[in-house]
Design goal:
With 206 residues, the protein is an alpha/beta fold. The protein has a five-stranded parallel β-sheet, sandwiched between helices. Helix 1 packs across helix 8 and helix 4 packs across helix 7. The chain is globular, with a radius of gyration of 16 Å. The structure holds thymidine-5'-diphosphate (TYD).
């Protein structure tokens, strides 16, 4: 099973899933935790180019293609092999981030971004996508309060950009109801962690 974690900046998706992973491992499931962009040496090198704060001249289509290139490499080297071995892959961000950030917020259009990504992923969609929903105001406040989280090029976009990201994610949840579960990330840590585990377990039991 291929699970992806999505949401605006500062939604706490990474922390929320930690407890769920521990519980799933205790129940005997084999989990591979990974992230995008990155997750393998080549893909991490592409990540550094994409997120470098000095790359202010990067064109939106270049950005799209770099995310797709990193995604492809990560699928080939890490995700597909793990899925073949019957493991559960839990990935921080995947193609829905491209649809929301490049398609929605950058304005390149969902269908254009989908086309590039169908090519890159050979139509590999997640079985379950957890959307950690939070307002950009709240999310950015959390990032500012978290000294260990490095600020990247996308974080530096204006508030309007982050509103578009959030709204596109909510539209995507409507477009793909069979794989999307929305989690209210403004709730307490414990509540969010519980909702995360419940969503994964109910999908596993289907
Ligand atoms: P990261 O530091 O991993 O952020 P987060 O902790 O919020 O996941 O940075 C990834 C950034 O790249 C984040 O701002 C979202 C953005 N992004 C895209 O714009 N398109 C994509 O396809 C992906 C995977 C990420």
């Amino acid at each position: 099973m291929f699970i992806t974690l999505e949401g605006p900046e500062g939604s706490g998706k990474t922390t929320a899933v930690e407890a769920a992973v521990k519980e799933l491992e205790a129940r005997g499931y084999q989990i591979v935790r990974t992230r995008e962009p990155g997750g393998t040496p080549i893909a991490e090198q592409i990540r550094n180019v994409i997120l470098d704060k000095d790359n202010t001249k990067m064109d939106p289509r270049t950005e799209t293609l770099l995310y797709a290139a990193s995604r492809r490499q990560h699928l080939v080297e890490k995700v597909w092999p793990a899925l073949k071995e019957g493991k559960i892959v839990i990935c921080d961000r995947y193609l829905d981030s491209s649809l929301a950030y490049q398609g929605g917020a950058r304005g390149l259009g969902i269908d254009n971004i989908l086309n590039v990504n169908m090519f890159a992923t050979e139509n590999t969609f997640p079985d379950l996508t957890l959307l950690f929903d939070i307002t950009p105001e709240e999310g950015l406040k959390r990032i500012a309060a978290n000294a260990s989280r490095e600020v990247n090029r996308l974080d530096l976009e204006k508030l309007e950009f982050h509103h578009k990201v959030r709204n596109t994610f909510l539209d995507l949840a409507k477009r793909y109801p069979e794989r999307y579960v929305i989690i209210d990330a403004s709730k307490s840590r414990e509540e969010v962690a519980k909702a995360t585990l419940d969503a994964i377990l109910s999908r596993l039991c289907k």
